[in-house]
Design the sequence.
């Protein structure tokens, strides 16, 4: 399978997988951005993508940025739908105690292509019974 990627600026680097076993490819900032401690910024990548119907592009944090600098993708994973043709942008948050500077070309997130199931949504009056029922958050115990 292939996906089509368009550079929105001539100096943007087309992403690639860094190793043969990698499932994600890195996205880079197309601009210099400062993220103050506790704040968020939407950072452009200078890329647009064309995905086949039934696929999404998930935007996920880079583990090194999270571990070393407390920078992560706020809406993780972010989803790029197959019919979206605009610039891929990454919503980053700084959970660290210091401001963080992103420079043009820095790797800011990783993208993973996933197959998704498109379903028919059917309104009903009742749902089937299960042992769990409506018990949610923490209802199956601590261990």
Sequence:
């Amino acid at each position: 399978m292939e996906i089509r990627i368009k550079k929105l600026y001539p100096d943007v680097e087309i992403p690639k997988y860094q190793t043969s076993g990698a499932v994600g490819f890195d996205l880079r900032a197309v601009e210099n951005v400062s993220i103050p401690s506790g704040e968020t910024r939407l950072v452009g990548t200078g890329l647009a993508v064309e995905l086949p119907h039934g696929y999404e592009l998930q935007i996920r944090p880079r583990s090194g940025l999270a571990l070393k600098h407390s920078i992560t993708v706020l809406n993780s994973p972010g989803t790029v739908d197959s019919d979206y043709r605009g610039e891929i942008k990454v919503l980053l948050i700084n959970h660290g105690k210091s401001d963080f500077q992103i420079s043009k070309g820095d790797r800011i997130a990783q993208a993973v292509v996933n197959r998704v199931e498109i379903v028919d949504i059917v309104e009903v009056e009742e749902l089937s019974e299960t042992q769990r029922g409506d018990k949610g958050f923490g209802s199956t115990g601590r261990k």
